[in-house]
Amino acid sequence: MIKPFMPQLVYIEPQALEYPLGAKLKEKFEDLGVEIRQTTSHNQVRNIPGENHLQKYRNAKSTLVIGVRKTLKFDTSKPSAEYAIPLATGCMGHCQYCYLQTTMGSKPYIRTYVNLEDIFSQAEDYMNERAPQDTRFEASCTSDIVGIDHLTHSLKQAIEFFGNSENGKLRFVTKYHHVDHLLDADHKGKTRFRFSINADYVIRNFEHGTSPLDYRIGAAAKVADAGYPLGFIVAPIYIHDGWKEGYEKMFQKLNEQLSEKAREDLTFELIQHRFTKPAKRVIQKNYPMTKLELDEEKRKYKWGRYGIGKYVYQKDEQEDLKNTMQANIERYFPEAKLEYFT
Q1: First and final C-alpha spacing in the chain
Q2: Residue 108 covered by a domain
Q3: Alpha carbon of 323 to those of 36, 80, 198, 200, 251: distances in Å?
Q4: Among 21, 97, 174, 327, which residue's Cβ finds the most Cβ atoms within 10 Å?
């Protein structure tokens, strides 16, 4: 069973101690006997222990930096939301295909931001600009926020902040089942709680350090019982031997374990496997034994934002993926809404 994340090493920016959450986290980790070091800024975190790149990389993923979010301009987060709300960056999971491999670059440690009032105030400004339309905020663009929230409760505060907002909606996705502390949050139905799910082959080979599928589905059932609107992201949809049977089995498991209540307002998002040239280099450096198929010759090149293109499946394969997934959703969850396939 996957235990909740506990850092082996914590860095604290001095400014973070000026905020209640920063002081509280310092006290918590002192009581737990976790090694704490000071750092002037997260950019100065250089001396992660380890004898070689792989050891340093693994140790970085169990290092937490408690800091202040200085950039308060939110990124956009299409297609799932208008904005990404920055509560944390980095992730303790070892998902070999993850795009954070490149965005986190040489700093794969986890950062949590303690100036929540500033972040919520900025979110308020964005909501006011778009009022009376709803504004959706995605909380898991740069991290698996649920994976650290049993320590910080930042996500819980965000859920309650948006619950009490006029036009705000919150969304996030997780591969972890440690949700119990979020079940009594006053969400007022304004937070969509989503779980990332995949075929057993993908979880077993590429999603190390995350909760097994059954645990994720069990957590999803709890979340639905607590009244949260529920969603599932099937990502990345990955072609492998027996992939059609593997994904159907996943939908069958979901069908067996989800209550009627969970199906009342259910969404699916479908994302095919893709990679960029820089991501391929980083993945092969961090996971030299990976079985991930990263052959550019087999893929179609698709231009992306900022001129960085990505390698996606060929057009006929994409059609096959989309049709297979849609057929499963229509069969097992006809009342659900398919938000997009990309």
Answers
A1: 32
A2: yes
A3: 51, 21, 17, 20, 14
A4: 174
Q: Cis before residue 4, ω within 30 degrees of 0?
A: no
Cα 38 from chain centroid? Answer: 27
Evaluated on CA atoms 103, 108, 112, 113, the torsion sign reads negative
* Side chain identity at residue 264, one-letter code: E
Q: Rounded distance, CA 140 to CA 215, Å?
A: 19
Burial class of residue 200 in the structure, from the number of CB atoms within 10 Å of its CB (0-12 exposed, 13-18 middle, 19+ buried) = middle
In a domain, 41, yes or no: yes
Q: Residue 75: which CATH number? A: 3.40.50.12110
Q: What phi, psi does 131 have (nearest 5°)?
A: -55, 145
Domain extent at residue 29: 1-174
Q: Is 48 within the bounds of a domain?
A: yes
Alpha-carbon distances, residue 255 vs 259, 319, 329 (angstroms): 8, 24, 10
Per-residue pLDDT reduced to its tens digit, 162-218 = 999 999 999 999 999 999 999 999 999 999 999 999 999 999 999 999 999 999 999
For the question of whether the overall pTM of this predicted structure is more than 0.85, the answer is yes
Angular region, 227: left φ>0, alpha ψ -120 to 50, beta rest: left
CB-CB contact of 223 with 193 (8 Å):
yes
**Which 8-state DSSP code applies to residue 276?**
-
Name the amino acid, one letter, at 230.
L
Residue 16 scores a pLDDT above 70 = yes
- Contact assessment for residue 340 and residue 270, using Cβ atoms and an 8 Å cutoff: yes
| Count: domains in the chain | 1
SS (H, E, C) 78-120: CCCEEEECCCEEECCCEECCCCHHHHCCCCCCEEEECCHHHHH
Cα–Cα distance for residue pair 117/101, rounded to 1 Å: 29
The letter for the amino acid at 100 is L
Whether 153 is covered by a domain: the verdict is: yes
